[in-house]
Design goal:
Blueprint (H helix, E strand, L loop, with lengths): L10 E2 L4 E2 L2 H8 L12 E8 L1 H14 L20 E2 L2 E2 L3 E3 L5 E3 L2 H8 L4 H21 L5 E5 L2 H7 L9 H9 L6 H13 L5 E4 L1
Parallel strand pairs: 3-6, 3-7, 3-8, 8-9
Antiparallel strand pairs: 1-2, 4-5
Length: 204
C-alpha cells in the first residue's frame, strides 16, 4: 500500500489566506467584505417561546463582543471569538427586532406537550413552529430564521434525557422508540417553506 500525504489547502479570505476558517475570518475578514454586495447587515428572525426568544436575543447580544478563548492547553482548538460587529472579523451586524419575532403562546405549547403519543407530539410541535415561520415569511422576510425550541418542548420530546435508566427500561425504550426524528422533520418542513425565498434557518 502506498500512502500519499496531501497538504491541507489554504482558504482564501479578504486580505490573506489561512488553513483554518476561524482564524482566517478573525484575522483576514470574509473574502467579499469589501464588495458592495457583501452582507453588511443580517436581519435575524426568531421563533420560540417568550423565554427561548429572550435567551437567543441575550446570546446574540453577547456575540457582538469579544469572547475570550477557553482556558486550555489546546489554544488552536478553543480560540477566542472576535465578536460579530461591523468593525472587524465578519464586518457585518446582526439586526434583531420584535417585528422579526414570533412567539408561541403558552396555551399552544401546553396543548402540544399534553399529546400522549410521542410521534404525534413531535408532528404537532413541528407544525406549531412552522406556522410561525410561515408568518415571518409573509411580510418582509428576515435573512435568517432561528427556531428557538421552547424548553417545554425539549422536555416533552425527550422525557428521559439526563435520567439513568436500568437495562430493562432501556430494552423497553428500544422497542417503543419513536419513528419520527423531531430535528429532521423540523428541518425538512422549514426547508420546504424557506428554500424558494433564499432564507436560512437554525434550530436552537
Amino acid at each position: 500500500m502506498k500512502v500519499i500525504k496531501l497538504e491541507e489547502p489554504e482558504l482564501e479570505f479578504g486580505t490573506n489566506s489561512h488553513i483554518d476558517i476561524r482564524f482566517g475570518i478573525m484575522n483576514y475578514c470574509p473574502l467579499d467584505f469589501e464588495s458592495d454586495n457583501a452582507a453588511k447587515t443580517i436581519r435575524v428572525g426568531i421563533v420560540g417561546s417568550a423565554s427561548s426568544i429572550e435567551g437567543i436575543r441575550d446570546w446574540l447580544e453577547k456575540c457582538r463582543c469579544d469572547i475570550p478563548a477557553k482556558n486550555s492547553r489546546q489554544s488552536n482548538l478553543f480560540p477566542r471569538f472576535p465578536g460579530f460587529n461591523p468593525d472587524l472579523a465578519f464586518h457585518s451586524e446582526l439586526i434583531t427586532d420584535s417585528s422579526l419575532e414570533r412567539q408561541l403562546s403558552s396555551s399552544k405549547i401546553d396543548s402540544v406537550v399534553k399529546i400522549p403519543v410521542l410521534d404525534n407530539l413531535r408532528i404537532e410541535a413541528v407544525r406549531s413552529i412552522v406556522e410561525e415561520v410561515n408568518f415571518l415569511l409573509e411580510k418582509k422576510p428576515p435573512d435568517v430564521i432561528i427556531c428557538a425550541i421552547p424548553q417545554e418542548y425539549v422536555e416533552a420530546l425527550d422525557p428521559d434525557a439526563g435520567k439513568e435508566l436500568d437495562n430493562e427500561t432501556l430494552v423497553s425504550k428500544t422497542v417503543q422508540k419513536s419513528k419520527i426524528n423531531f430535528h429532521h422533520l423540523l428541518k425538512a418542513r422549514c426547508m420546504s417553506v424557506t428554500v424558494h425565498q433564499n432564507q436560512s434557518f437554525r434550530c436552537g
